[in-house]
Amino acid sequence: MSGQTVIEKLISNHTGKKVCRNEIAIVEVDGIMASDTTAPLAIKAFEEMGGTRVWDRDKMFLVIDHASPAPNERIANLHDMMRRFSREQGVKLYDVGEGICHQLMIEKHHVKPGQIFFGADSHTCTYGAIGAFGTGVGSTDLAGIMLTGKTWVKVPDTLKIVLNNTLRPYVSTKDLILFLAGQLGIEGATYKSIEFTGDALMPLSVDSRITISNMVIEMGAKAGFVDTAGLQLPYNFDSVKPDDDAEYEAVYEYDVSKLEPMIALPHSPDNVKPISEVGSVPIQQAFIGSCTNGKLEDLRQAAKILKGKKIDPRVRLMVTPASKEVYHQALLDGTAEILMAAGATLLPSGCGPCVGTHLGIPGNGENVLSSTNRNFQGRMGNRNANVYLASPVTVAASALTGQITHPQNIR
Amino acid sequence: MIIKGVCHVFGDNIDTDRIIAGKYTKTLDLQELASHVMEDLDPGFRSRLNKGDIVVGGYNFGCGSSREQAPLALKTAGVSLVVARSFARIFFRNSINIGLPLIEAKDHRIADQDELETDLIHGTITNLSQNAQYKGTQMPSVMVDILNEGGLTNYLKKYGAFKVN
């Protein structure tokens, strides 16, 4: 047996034996999470399985974020089902406005480096930002873990992506991950995991790292892992490193200093072009938020562009901070003031605009420039709208001019 | 497990947002989910679909969200099987977990309205309309066991835990 990749090590650590790619392993799970899209079905499945108590109430978290606060009576009743379950089981619930599930799991330290965490949301891969194995599952899969504390995984092959040098001004990890989605394609990592390494990662904040791992699912990956070298957390942790002779299915190396801002064109997150090749595209709606880019760093970067300026009167700019804590910090440090003075509408923390449930459904034929992770047809709630993806800085710059604009052109 | 039916063919990268839009996912009413299946992609699909029909995709069927409502909507609408050149992994797992059979066949050349007969256990797919055969990819035994029980709920009710040989 050759050396192990990080992902093989993390799975082995939770299986009690050394496992390698393509093996099926039953893992002990460190934590699970479900949102208001997936929790009601999971609770139903758990009860149908004969479940009465979740295996460990301190390791399960419920978050009301996808349609929060409830936009209608039916969703309000599903939220109440989650509240009732949380009370009965003693499971922690984050209620309306507290924030987006992935932001909360990291911000509240419910997931930690080296852990295995399953979430009933595809962007659970985000936890790779802090060196955890996070992966998305459906509701019934989650119910199985609620019952047993375990689940089965097929140990994936790993792709290694080496990132060298430093990002240029106005270029962020969102541009980097959009670029990689364009390179690998929307199924380029299906059934696989991705390990990110290289000196480009060293200076990156947790917020910047989150944007990288968040979008590995946009290449189909099971999990992403960002090298923990340089990772700053408010507590001590052990770093897991790959063996020197670990085997990767493929290794890709990139010089990130060559990147410019990137745009994903409708209707797929891998339909990516450098901004210089996109041309002038008018926009009617701009959105900064989501588990990908609604973090404090994202809001501050947008504010830097917007400070002392007004958005184009033909554009609506919506901002959803990723959590109540992010919102609060943005109020305290003046970021929120700058955004509002520029004409932005600040919305409660949640997933509504990104997933198209409420709070900003575009009209027919409208173009939206969004800092979210997906632009599938109908994604923001209207199949007849066009969603383009970009970094918060590019979204802010474009809101000022009314068309997709390189942030360096804002004076 | 032999499944026979008439095919409805879709292209590559059919994402879960197009199988069931996010705005319809907040419900436990499966019939309601089924009434919106594939709506954004093909508004006439629901009325053309007959019970037992087969949905066929190209590469990366079911990419995107983890929402289990996508395979549930297909199954409740009457779809008996999904065949694709490849599947996104969460959709694949979800389908098995809710008891919607699926099979991956890298090189299938199925056309719309072809009649198909599939043996899931042996991984053979016979296109009765074209008199052709395709080889299906074998799934892990734990998945076969879950599918044989009709889904994860019945599997865990029966065994109480996961078992891997």
Overview of this structure, please?
Chain A is built from 13 helices and 18 strands. In chain A, β9, α7 and β10 form a beta-alpha-beta unit. The model of chain A has no long low-confidence stretch (mean pLDDT 97). Chain A has a 5-stranded parallel sheet with strand order 4-3-2-5-6, covered by helices on one side. A 5-stranded parallel sheet of chain A has the order 16-15-14-17-18, covered by helices on one side. In chain A, strands 10-9-8-11 form a 4-stranded parallel sheet, with helices on one face. Chain A has 411 residues and is of the alpha/beta class. Chain B has 165 residues and is α/β, with parallel strands linked by helices. Chain B has helices at 16-19, 30-35, 45-48, 69-77, 89-98, 141-148, 152-159; strands spanning 2-9, 54-57, 81-84, 102-104, 115-119, 124-127, 132-135. A 7-stranded mixed sheet of chain B has the order 4-3-2-1-5-6-7, covered by helices on one side. Chain B is globular, with a radius of gyration of 15 Å. Chains A and B meet through β1, α2, α3, α5 and β7 of A and α5 and α7 of B.
CATH superfamily of chain B: Aconitase, domain 4
CATH topology label of chain B? Aconitase, domain 4
CATH topology type of the largest domain in chain A: Aconitase, domain 3
Order of strands, main sheet of chain A, comes to: 4-3-2-5-6
Kindly report the oligomeric state of this protein.
heterodimer
Summarize the largest interface: chains and residue counts. A-B, 55 and 43 residues
Tally of helical runs of chain B: 7
Radius of gyration of chain B: 15 Å
Main sheet: strands, sense, barrel of chain A: 5 strands, parallel
CATH-derived architecture of the largest domain in chain A: 2-Layer Sandwich
Structural domain tally of chain A = 3
Task: Categorize the overall geometry of chain B.
Answer: globular
Q: Could you list the spans of chain A in which at least 5 consecutive residues all have pLDDT below 50?
A: none
EC number (chain A): 4.2.1.33
Family (chain A): Belongs to the aconitase/IPM isomerase family. LeuC type 2 subfamily.
Cofactor (chain A): [4Fe-4S] cluster
Organism (chain A): Ferviditalea candida
